[in-house]
Fold each of these.
Amino acid sequence: MKTIAVIGAQWGDEGKGKIVHLLSERADVICRYQGGNNAGHTVVTGGNKYVLHLLPSGILHEDKVCIIGNGLVVNPYALRDEMETLKEDGIECTSRLFVSDRASLIMPYHLELDHAYEEALGIGTTKRGIGPAYTYKYARMGVRPCDLREVSYLERIVGLALDEVNATLSGRFGRDPLKLSDVMETLDEYARILEPFVADTSKILRQHIDEGRKVIFEGAQGVLLDVDFGSYPYVTSSSPSAGGILTGLGIGPKMVGEILGVTKAYTTRVGGGPFPTELEDETGEHIRHVGGEFGASTGRPRRCGWFDAVCTRHAVRVSGIDRLAMTKFDVLDGLETLRVCTHYRIDGKETDEFPANAERLARAVPVYREFKGWDSIAGIRKYGDLHASCTHYTEELERLLGVPISIVSTGPDEKDTIFRERIAF
Ligand code: IMP
């Protein structure tokens, strides 16, 4: 099978953008299957840095087909802005970007609701309307690109949604209600922006697969933010896990070949929720500073901590990850001792399970194993040239996680990457 999935095996921000961009050189089609413009995939190429939110990271290679699947929630304004930024650098999306006619649109009231609910729930969302857009999709009051020219349908469905939205916004949160006519105007603009790109992407993708083209399924966020398998309720509202690929693109399970997970050599998370190995000390501050750990979408400082093998093992299992790419080893340069959480102690008992309940996860005390650090491996491009402590760390993590670490990344540039084995797809 000439397809590969690249998915986050932590709480997002693992460096998927760089890995997808690198693998894209050999691919024909790159697809996003879930999430929206809450993502921030950073790619450093040719001396330029790009942060992609909604467009697949493969878009930077001009000959690649890119697909935004039905599993996404799409804000057409964000899409337009992103395409315009790329255009300034001479990167054109027209005729090779396809947006599913069945994707869900982020409506102006989803943004309002995300802001309002955030005050009550404290999840620490990106406030891009992601959660409410998925909520309305599953409540069967969503709007999709295929609906945009069906005016009477739109008026009925948006009218129904607004009855609920306005009752919540004004009744519960004391905010101004939204008018149907204003929303309809926005939808007219949405239609104009999306029209050149809307297609039955499941059909297009299937044709590419049948004709033997190489396809990458690009995950956003990470398994620990998955609505089913993450640290619920401190999660996003989609399925970054491998399962999301099938429903988010409209293909069958046999069409997903290799599953490549991406992690950092340590752990970060942005937003609220339990994080057992979090370092709220000088070392955490050091990692944040050296690693530039600030949200690529929101600029928020990321919480930093030691590598947690318990939660990554969980991610490996629930997504059937075959092998891993591990990034940002260089950020650990100069630390004398490194720690890796091998299991948790919860309520006095040792466990190697990632708890389903967030309160229980919050009570998890990490049990650490210590490793010797290394001086500097930044920018090293051969595995054999890495410091022995670094290869020892890598190989012990492989053992703890039960899957090979096939790619080691030693810096932000695409060239600072060691392929320990050929990634076949
Ligand atoms: P939402 O996806 O905006 O609803 O946010 C829900 C949670 O997921 C929050 O903790 C966010 O910080 C987190 N989140 C969403 N997208 C990303 C991402 O791309 N990287 C890391 N965290 C994310």
Amino acid sequence: MFKRILIANRGEIALRIVRACKELGVESVVVYSEADRYTLPVLMADDSICIGPAPSAQSYLLPDRIIGAAKVKGAEAVHPGYGFLAESADFARMCADNDLVFIGPSPEAISMMGDKSRARETMMAGNVPVVPGSDGVVLSAEDAREIADRIGYPVLIKAKAGGGGKGMRVCESPDDIEKLYQQARTEAAASFESDEVYIEKYLARSRHVEIQVLADAHGNAVSLCERDCSVQRRHQKLIEEAPSPALTPELREAMSDAALRAVRAVGYQNAGTIEFLLDEDRNFYFMEMNTRVQVEHPVSEQVTGVDIIKEQLRIASGEPMACASRAPFEPRCHAIEFRINAEDPSIGFRPCPGVIKRFDLPGGCGVRVDTHIRAGAMIPPTYDSLIAKLIVWGDTRDEALRVAERALEEFNIEGIATTIPFHLAAIRNEVFRSGDFYTDFVETEMNGVEL
Ligand code: ADP
């Protein structure tokens, strides 16, 4: 195991990694921008180092600065968390060139999966079903029209380098394809390094169901079951749960097998997530692979009892994962995660930075809160709006929902607007309670709901 690692992230995930390090007896060094100097991960890590001013482009996104920090502080490895440089193959390669272990997959695996159209081809070759669509990138609006005519409307135009729901456009008819094709390219160019796009059939009534995997250098590869992330706004997740209300044990096994085929097809090591769309007829299709730990990983930790961050450190240090002998995994309870964002859900989830005046956490049986926030904290406008994750669990979905309701009511945040009123309304919604909903749940069921 490593003696000392650098955490190249901020917020709740930096704190989550600091805690795992403490339990493993690994020293942690956390980097921070000037805006994050007085945050909990910085106070709780064994050591810390300032890497620049608040804007991410001048701090958390600077590979040289981070590698320099790791060297100065004598770290052997770098944990990138999620976001920032977590899916940068160049950064992973720079770590290796500087004798630092990147706590994640190989640069080759990152670049293969980061190019979403190439990822589709790799999955098809590995016998994993993909959403019907274009073979590779679509170079002109005429080609887009031809492909859409062939696969049938509606279609989804997606950025090759996509993420965070950006550079995506649903197109319902041939009349709009040219305009939406150009819009998707323009948005992709503004958000990513590449403006290239590809096309998929748009599966309107589908659920987002993803499989969490772990693979090590000793030939072990396991599925930690699924997470259902169908409650989304603008293609971004708000609520995640496991088990998925739509899965049978047989379907779980089939999706886990497909995910493990995907892992083998890329020679993947460390933690990763294979995202699928599940249609009304329970056919599932590969959408993309996330080559990092995800925001919603605690859901899988609660239903399997596996500490994913500790496994990441074991795998990166060359040890076998600790949980391999427990596979195949079955969910041992029902867990739900609610993303508490500094956003006002009553005005289109508008970001709401500011000072937190009160921050009273829920507690009790079946409750976990991952957060870096305390009363008095300032939420800067500079970063992602996630301020806490509330994870609840119970023996059944119904019990988990009861825990959720009282925990969301206990959670008292003053000073800024948050997504808590949205979550309370969502779990009281009949369609959500029935478990029978699709990725359009927020648009179709929550529109106009008084919050
Ligand atoms: P990103 O990397 O930008 O998050 P994803 O490929 O993960 O993009 O897709 C995000 C969300 O968009 C999915 O969870 C799903 O709700 C929706 N989506 C993506 N592809 C399709 C599709 N072919 N049909 C219907 N919905 C889709």
